[in-house]
Amino acid sequence: MNLMYDLEEEGLDWDLIYIGRKRMQVEHPEKSVPHVRNLVEADYSYWTLAYVISLQGAQKLLAAEPLSKMLPVDEFLPVMFDKHPV
Hints:
This is Procollagen galactosyltransferase 1-like. By secondary structure, the protein is an alpha+beta fold.
């Protein structure tokens, strides 16, 4: 829970945090989030193993009506947060 404490202390506005994933664009370094240990601004990722979604992030995902589209979560999340390479 140190991560959540650090986020609150820094007053960061966030929607989605990957806890476990596979980076797909390894040739480009990811930008570290200042003052939050082990957190980066994630690029395009796959293998969505574990993640945390804020209330506002969940509302954004639901507003996109995901049940009306058949997409794997590994494609849907990057599209929703403007990280998909295509």
